Amino acid sequence: MRPSALQRMYALIWLFVGSFVFLTIITVFVNDYQIAAGYPALFYFAAVFAAILLSYLELFLAPSKSAYARHFEQESESRRNSESASRPLTGSTTAARSDDRPVGDDDATETTSLLRGDRRGFTRYGGNRRDSISEGGEDHAQGPRQIDLGNVYPGEQEWSGKLPSWIWIVQLLLLAPIVIILVGQVGLLLTSALYQTPSDGNSTLFIYLAFAGLTVLLLAPTGPFIHRFTYHIPTFLFLVCVATVIYNLVAFPFSRDHRLKVYFVQRVNCETGDNIVSLTGLDGYVQRIVGELPSAQGKQLICTTPEVATRKELKQCEWQGLDAKVVPKPAHASSSRNNTYISKWLDYSIQKGNSSNKAIIRVVGHNTRACRIVFDSPITALSVAGAVSDSRFKPVGADGAREVRLWHREFGQPWNVSVAWNAKEQSKLSGRIVCLWSDANTGDIPAFDEVQHYLPVWAIPSKISDGLVEGFKQFEI
After folding, report:
1. What whole-number distance in Å separates Cα of residue 18 and Cα of residue 29?
2. Rounded to the nearest 10 degrees, what angle do helices 40-58 and 7-33 cross at?
């Protein structure tokens, strides 16, 4: 496209429109949803407004259209006079000119005006009419007054030579610091906060959209000035982009400094003695990790979608693992696989209330301070003996509750939980009681110790929930 001296102004107009729309959206979020995280949009818009205001003020320094038209006519007149003086004249041509053409006209060329000889026309911007009358009433013998158009940037309009060449520096100082300080810091914070969240099960689409949006906001202020750059800079940046894309597609995504999180849990059925160990992580990588564990060799590996809603993007791989020793084994127990020993990890009793839809569940977990009651259907009322309550908050929501989490300051203390349910919708109340153990420092969880020992250097274990080991029993009222 033909270079324009107003390229910087055009780009600033687009930035002004975009930043105004962005500021409007942020204002709606603040007023209607109380989301004020987009406050940098205000400073962004203010910087663009100040820069475009300078561009409009810059136009006052450009020559007027009439002055530029006179300068253009003078150049055309001088060019034609020089061509006429250098053209050889013969008797025949001189006679032909005197007979057929008005005095002073020369041969028509591709630049000759269609209105030649017409002195009643008006001077147009950028026109090349030779015989227009100057606005100042100047005599043709003296010629139009000379105007200084200054130094014109190659390829741009001649009238832009008088525009100051330093205003772009002021505009860049208005745009760049605010964008780098505000948007740049937000971008760095977001990058460091989100780049590891896919291993937690979050969607990568939001991360890429957030990075793309912040990158656009960060680089958009270079638009008004990038047209003056040589092709070497965008070519270099393009090569850098290609190199980084190839590296990101080929290189292994995790390292000792940037590890993949895998989530461990061991679930033990205290009634049957079944012991299931599971690791949850990114599909393809978690299978690779489990394949290195000795306890998983030669055993059936089942990989499914986790039950936890926040981990739906991950894979959960389960196998028969090493037995846990979270509750001290009695001296008379011959084997840790003894179901009688495992069944003593937690005890519970249920006392029916006066009504058919009320009951008191007593839960006792050994060597633990945390247990849970998970219901298959929601309960409508709840109270825990000795628990602190606040009258401002209801213990159960309008839609009921499916899980009660219990915690005590001392080990092995019981909980008496009173519950009620809707007898019209459900005649029975069923679920499971779960107790938790998380002490991995004493060797009581061999399966977790095994994972830590054989885990690759580019991975690190974590808990998928409150406990590393979950012992549970089913109940029905």
Report:
1. 17
2. 150
Same domain flag for 309 and 371: yes
53's tokens: 């205001």
- Residue 345's nearest CA partner among 330, 368, 366, 370 is 366
367 & 415 share domain: yes
Number of domains in the chain: 3
Task: Decide which of 105, 121, 148 is a domain's last residue.
Answer: 148
Cα distances (angstroms) measured from residue 120 to each of 72, 111, 123, 130, 343: 18, 20, 10, 12, 112
Structure confidence at residue 307 (pLDDT): 81
Alpha-carbon 230 to chain mean position: 31
CA angle 295, 291, 296 (to 5 degrees): 20
Q: Is 68 among the domain residues?
A: yes
**Full residue range of the structural domain in which residue 289 is found:** 259-477
Q: What is the pLDDT of residue 261?
A: 92
User: In this structure, are 328 and 464 located in the same domain?
Assistant: yes
Burial 380-406 (b: 16+ CB within 10 A, else e): bbbebeeeeeeeeeeebeeeebeebeb
- pTM, two decimals, is 0.69
CB atoms inside a 10 Å sphere around CB 71:
19
**Residue 122's pLDDT is what?**
38
**How would you label 112-145 residue by residue, b for 16+ Cβ within 10 Å and e otherwise?**
ebeeeeeeeeebeeebbbbbbebeeeeeeeeebe
Q: Is 64 helix (H, G, I), strand (E, B) or coil?
A: coil
SS3 breakdown of the chain: % helix, strand, coil, rounded to 5? Answer: 40, 20, 45
Return the pLDDT at 94.
46
In the chain the first and final C-alpha atoms are separated, in Å, by 80
> Does some domain include residue 158?
no
Contacts of 61 (CB under 8 A, 6+ apart): 162, 163, 164
pLDDT at 119: 44
Nearest alpha-carbon partner for 362 in 394, 379, 381, 385: 385
Taking the C-alpha atoms of residue 348 and residue 271, their distance in angstroms, rounded to an integer, is 12
Taking 50 as the pLDDT cut, the residues of the chain under it are 91-99, 102-104, 118-141, 144, 336
